[in-house]
Amino acid sequence: MVQGDWTAADVGDQAGRTAVITGATSGLGLETAKVLAGHGATVVLTGRDAARAETAAASVRAAAPGAGVEIALLDLASLDSVRAAAADIGGRFDRIDLLINNAGVMFLPPGVTKDGFELQFGTNHLGHFALTGLLLEHLTSVPGSRIVTVSSNGHKAGRIDMADLQSVSRVNPMAAYGRSKLANLMFTYELQRRLEAAGLPTIALAAHPGTARTELTRHMSVLANTAMSPRFRMLNSWWVQDQATGALPILRAATDPDAIGGTYYGPSGAFQFTGSPVRVRSSIRSHNAEVQRKLWAESEKLTGVSYGI
To answer: Which residues are marked as active site?
Structure first.
């Protein structure tokens, strides 16, 4: 593992680079956008709601005066929306230097996406799988481009059952979330293997924020949210951190010149809950190459998006 303190000040000059960030209207995505914009990048903020996206864009401009800030509407729970967003972004930008697959939902009650996929798996994994494939040509033509997909400590509890990926009624919200986050990692590792085999200049990495206070926790219990409250910082600081710190592993994966494809970044502290961003290990299950390949093939089938690599 790579050790040492790494902060937002270590993000190098991003002038001339374009970063597309999903779920950038709040939380980790918004923090990531502010830092990248502050270092010169043009940032494309995606979100489902136009008003919220405009508000987020205004906050990025306030934090980074003069920065290039664009908006693209995107609902990852709808493949029609994913295709429309990819066409919109691709039409405006010939080159994309960074695609940060950050958006996600967590612990939602059982449900399905607009295409009938289990809600958390469909949003967190299949939506990003489709978006990445549709934007890939705009990345692979750019030397040094990166695809960073945000996973979670929750992946460690995840299971991929190829015979039952779309279970809704028999999977509890925590299990469904863990499965989607495990899929994010397996997607990253398989994508990196394919990019490398094709001799393309783009690399794929993953990151996770540890335990960060964001809107994503709103579906957790009242007790859990109370325990994470900043009011109890003296008691919970060893396992909960703010969203600015939670965004650092994403930023390091996206910008550290020493980062290599197929690696995973997270907090350095106990159980990867809090701390400076470093390279971390994911679960043994996440490295099962056979399941990665099967998941990839099934994802292409379900989304209708083929990468051609």
So the answer is: 177
Q: Is residue 113 part of a domain?
A: yes
Compute the chain's Rg from CA coordinates.
18
Return the amino acid letter for 178. G
Split at pLDDT 50, 70, 90, the class of 172 is confident
Structure tokens given for 212: 């960060």
Q: According to the model, what pLDDT value does residue 1 have? A: 40
CA atoms of 156 and 179, how far apart (whole Å)? 9
pLDDT in tens, 42-61: 999 999 999 999 999 999 99
In a domain, 60, yes or no: yes
Q: Note whether residue 3 is domain-resident.
A: no
CATH of the domain at 19: 3.40.50.720
In angstroms, the CA 301 to CA 284 distance is 26
Q: How far apart are alpha carbons 27 and 23 in whole angstroms?
A: 8
Q: Are 173 and 117 in contact (CB under 8 A)?
A: no
Predicted TM-score (pTM) of this structure: 0.91
